[in-house]
Amino acid sequence: MPLFLPVQPTTMSHDDHADLPGPMTPLHYADAAPRPLELLYATTDKEARHAINKLLLSAPVHTINDKPCNVLGFDTESKAQFVKGGPQRKTALIQLSTEACVALFHVCRMPRGLSAELRALLEDESYIKAGVAILGDAAGILQDFDVRMQSMVELPALAVSSVPEKMARCTPGLKSMLEGFLGRTITKAKKICLSNWEAPLTKRQKDYAANDAYASIALFQHLMKERSDRNNNKPIELISGASVVVKRPKFPSDAVQVPRNHEDKPEKSRAKGMGNQKGELGKSKAKRTRASPYVVPSKRGGEEAVATKDSDISTVQSSRRTIGDSEGGINPLHPYPPSYDAFTNMYYYQHTTLPQHDFNW
Q1: Which of residues 57 and 313 earns the better pLDDT score?
Q2: Is the same domain home to 60 and 208?
Q3: Residue of 21, 134, 238, 320 with fewest CB within 10 Å of its CB?
């Protein structure tokens, strides 16, 4: 009997392939239908004013919670911070989009950061700002520019309330939601995502930022259509500026990156194979020390019981000698007085480097 039975070839009809995922068309603002979106790039107040006028004239109107509102796709970009645990950089770019145009406000290169018109638009409650992880972007804008954005819509939350069964198959990210709801994809190259957004933008950076904002407004429009088809009248949650909480530390503009092994000491760090590095006084680290605070036995309980001595000891004792109260005094042969240990109630002669202590008796 053969070990393997021959497998009969099977034929699949066209309908059998209906559920198999096919190649997805990338979403791009320049390929939008019925016409490509106009790209507006603003680095001055005048350019920002022109871009905002274009946005206001083309923003779609939706009835949200029984109130007509204009809607804008929203996103931000910041320069990546590669120091683990370090503070985040300031918001460098703000993107707003309609179905007719997308505007890139390079706020880190604008004379006043946010122009008066852009500030007013972000704070206007009649203009809905829709995006993914928009609450984190709003927190950055609040901290960097002291602006509380109003009327924000978190697209993953809107999808859960509108089409929960589809959102269950997606992750709350822009690319995953585009693929799950629109059958489109979006380019998320790490090289561009982690690039320097504070420098003048390249063509690839502009396309990346514009597509993010355009994808946000496209997702919002699709979710609102799904709600209308299902007669879904659930209230849409609008996030107000009062919900924005600043959590990230500020990044000072004149910050100096300090190496991890940096110490505020005159001697340099010891390198492998270099031996003892000498300090500014010409002595090796083995013979340099800082005397610890000491207590004069006769004044141990008084206000002047603690004295601090800071000097270099040329002769180092090879052992640590302790003396108790019963021995009655300080060794006159030792060049320096002993140190007092409050925890053991003992005096000792210290021959290694210890940090300064501030005892308040």
Answers
A1: 57
A2: yes
A3: 21
